[in-house]
Amino acid sequence: MKCHVCEKPNRDKAIFCKWCGEKIATKANAPLRELTGMTKVKDRLNDLMNTCESIKKREAATGTKIRLGMDMIITGNTGTGKSELVGSIAKLLANCGIITPGKIKVVDAVDYNDFAEEWDKNIAAIKGGVLCVENAQKLVPAGISDDIYVLDKLFSSMNKWSNDPIVIISGLKTGLEEFFAANPDIAGRFEYRFDLGDFTAEEIL
Questions:
Q1: What tens digit of pLDDT does each residue of 95-110 get?
Q2: CA angle, corner 192, sides to 187 and 194, nearest 5?
Q3: How is the beta sheet containing 192-196 ordered, strand by strand?
Q4: 116-162 pLDDT tens trace
Q5: H, E, C per residue of the chain
Q6: What is the pTM of this model?
């Protein structure tokens, strides 16, 4: 197997390149290479991918379906790649066999009430996939919303879902950070949190 960085050969089962130390590119981690910058995020997602691989091995050995918590919070300024990251995470999880390929529902804050009107039907449609609520800072009391219960049904339902669908809350740090800090029980339902910084000049070029 050839390293995509230094282009030197490695064993087929190699995880890291013995020449340059980079993680060997595989079909499973290909979505990470689509992301600009986000070094720390990629490191955490590589850990997630390793967890997914361990899960699939245990399932194969025991014949029992295993579903660990993988719900996520993504925060960052406008233009930091939050939507791109959500798409890459969904591809990564599909490549690892955790969700059904292409099964992702992205609901913007302005459309959330419409989505919630047919809650049971819409949630059933994305079982085995990912539900992402974008611009979620508009739906929490610390943000634009004055109604504390806008996302309450989502948060309470997560306790009953057995991590299916996987939930991603995405939005501006201002608003979401205050809300989750004031509600540690809700924040504790999310196993992964990614705070995206602004791109550097080198990353943009």
A1: 888 899 999 999 999 9
A2: 100
A3: 104-108, 130-134, 166-171, 72-76, 192-196
A4: 999 999 999 999 999 999 999 999 875 554 455 678 889 989 988 88
A5: CECCCCCCECCCCCCECCCCCCECCCCCCHHHHHCCCCHHHHHHHHHHHHHHHHHHHHHHHHCCCCCCCCCEEEEECCCCCHHHHHHHHHHHHHHCCCCCCCCEEEEEHHHHHHHHHCHHHHHHHCCCCEEEEECHHHHCCCCCCCCCCCCHHHHHHHCCCCCCCEEEEEECHHHHHHHHHHCHHHHCCCCEEEEECCCCHHHHC
A6: 0.81
